[in-house]
Structure formats: C-alpha cells, structure tokens
Amino acid sequence: MISFSTADINLWIAGLLWPLTRILGLLAASPLFGNSSVPASVKISLGVLLAMVVAPAVPPLPAADPTSLAGLLIVLQELLVGLAMGFSIRIVFAAVEMAGEISSLTMGLGFATFFDPNTQGRSSAISQFLALVATMTFLAVNAHLVLLSALVESFYTLPVSASPVYGGGFKQLADWGGRIFSTGVQLSLPIVAALLITNVALGILTRAAPQLNLFGIGFPITLGVGLLVIAMTLPYLATPVQNLFLDGIERARLMPRTWSQRPPTAPPASLPVRPPGPRP
Question: pTM value?
Fold first, then answer.
C-alpha cells in the first residue's frame, strides 16, 4: 500500500506553486503575454504548462510549509521577481509609445487619441501604430522565446529561497525606467527635426505672404510631412528597436543575479587603543 505523508504533499505543492508564481508574474507584466486581449484562462494555462516543464529541473527548494507565513512570503517574493522581469520588457514598449506620443504632438495629431486597454488610459494614433510595429518586431526576432529562456535561467541564478532578496535590483529597475524618456526622444528625433524645418519654412512663407491662412495650410502640410517622414524612417527603426529589446532582455536576465548578491558588510569599528606610557 502506498502512503503519502503531509510533508510529501507539501513538498509537491511547493515544487509547483513557487515556480508557477514567478512564471505568472512575468506573464502578467510582459507586454505580449500580459495583453488584456488574452483571456486569463489562457495565461493561467500557459503558466501551468511552463511550471510543469520547469519544476523538475528547479534547484532544491526550501523546506517550508506553503500555507505557513514563510511559504506565503516566498510566494510574494517570487511574484515580485516575475513582475520585475516582465516590467523590464514593458519599459521597452513604453519607450516606443513615448516616441509615438512625441511625434503625434509635433504633427498636430494630439487630438487623435484612442482608449488603450493595456494602460486604461488614452493613447495617440501614432503611438498605437508604433506599438503594433514593435510587437511585430518582438515576434519576428523571437524575443518572446528569449524572454522565456531568461525566465528559466533565473531559477538557477536566483533560486527559490526563504531568505529575502537584495534590494539593489529594484534600484536598477528604476534606473532602467529612465530609458523611456531618452529612447523615446531618440526614436522621434527624425520626425521632430523634419517638422521643425517645416514649421520654420511655414513661418518664412507667412512672413513673405501675410495674406496666406497659416491655420488653413499649416495643418495639412505638417501632417503630410510627418506621415512621409514616418514612412521613410520606418524601415530603419528595426535595428534600434531590436537592440532595445536585447537590452531589455539582458536587463531581465541580469536582474536576478543582482538580487542574489548581498551587499558587502562593513567590518566592525575597532576601539581606539591608548598608546603605551604613563597615565596622568
């Protein structure tokens, strides 16, 4: 007769629950898997399948009851690790959407906004177009498979442990978030420069011919020049966007290594030693 103890059952539950929590955290925060158009049942099913594949190769887990306080803290920690890894890739898409926002405002399409179900807010037409292009590039270069490979690798660089992670990884994630503004400006710089030249030319034209209606001819010209520059620069955006994806995946891969490290402890301060000699 085969019998199972409570410890064996807890070990089996923990062996699937803790890796599943990290996987579901990444799937919820990553831009492709965590899209709101993907049903929750599909996300959970994909996470369970990945956990069943990854769980047998995971390093030894801590001997903690999943229903105890220590087990719940491990679940929370694994969820934060997965969310941070997925959020590092979401920053890349946010940078591309930032470039679309800057371009649309410069073109005069700031009023052409739509509801974005991912952010639960408004998004411009150019921003959504560039986000779709970035998604197609993300799939074309197999970055989603590389992201899953980095997730599996994280179980070895940062094993499931009851000890708290080092908080320096969250600072690196915050520093990586600054790339949203710098990269967004760099990607939109050709469009902004072309429209700046167009506005200067329109200013010279209205100065030479004051009878021209600037508002009547300015908007179609800036809109047409903006769309033309986007069409011309779109084939050249593949390389910088691909490099940006590689940087984001590398950041997600190195983040667990940073969390696994501990800051060096300072040596204890030594007491001052009185020099030898007669005391007063």
Answer: 0.79
